Amino acid sequence: MISRRTCDYVFVFYWVVKYTLGVALKLTFRPWSRGRKNVPRRGPVILVSNHLSFADHFFGPLPLPRKVVFLAKSEYFTGKGVKGLLSKAFFSGAGQIPIDRTGGDASDRALRSGLRVLAAGNVLGIYPEGTRSPDGRLYKGKTGVARLALESRAPVVPCAMMGTFEFLPPGSHHPQLKVRPGVIFGPPMEFARYYGKETDRSALRAVTDEIVAEIAKLSGQEYVPVYAADAKAQLQADKAAKGTKGDSSGTGELPETELLVSYRHRCSDDSLQEP
């Protein structure tokens, strides 16, 4: 049985938000979608998406007639003050599962919660990049998505958010009304050939890379084979260095060669503890 802290405990609240905020979003921003029929109407489904903007949380599930439960970063549930309370109330009420992105036992518990959601026949959404893209490109996926796919044996539906990076760029609180955000749902993927290899690192990496490659086909994004979190850290360091030198130039996009150097020094290739 699924704990009431993970999914259907807020069934009514979810649909109230869906048909109030959702209608307002449709009328105001005119979002579009393609491939909705690729998402099964019944049974467990893993919805795997690129992550360009905070707006993805709203426009990704919006076209679907099913409830989507996402693994959300724990910071949404631990904020202070009025803003923190509102954030916690909204994400808890919408049935989101907090996940500790520092790895270890906390992330493993979150993944187990995700498996319980799937075992109950629900739709689980996950962003394999682990965080929002810092520059609109598609980054390397973490292998937690493969663990979910192989352990649950649920179909994986790749999903591409379109235009949300321009619609609501990172750090911005003002949507660009000239941009119509969209979402494309690809055909379901299955990985029967990897069943029984849930602890095989090479199999988990292969499944993850195959899913991300499909997202890249749908979205048309440039792929960068490093983790987005490392790209963000390197971009911040680069900006800080330029600020020290008094250089305000730059495009906000780090060359891939520099990212690869940083990546090799700062993280291991395959972490089974990271979603």
How is this structure best summarized?
With 275 residues, this protein is α/β, with parallel strands linked by helices. The chain has helices at residues 11-29, 56-59, 81-93, 105-119, 144-152, 164-167, 201-219, 228-245, 256-266, and strands at residues 32-34, 45-49, 68-73, 97-99, 123-126, 138-139, 156-162, 182-185, 223-224.
The end-to-end span amounts to 23 Å
Largest sheet: 7 strands, mixed
Instruction: State the shape.
Output: globular
Please trace the helix and strand order, writing H or E for each element: HEEHEHEHEEHEHEHEHH
Low-confidence stretches: 1-9, 247-251, 256-275
The main sheet orders its strands as 1-8-7-2-5-3-4
Q: For the residues shown, what is the average pLDDT?
A: 83
Number of helices: 9
The helix content is 40-55%
Number of strands: 9
Fraction in beta strands? 5-15%
Rg (CA only): 18 Å
Estimated structural class: alpha/beta
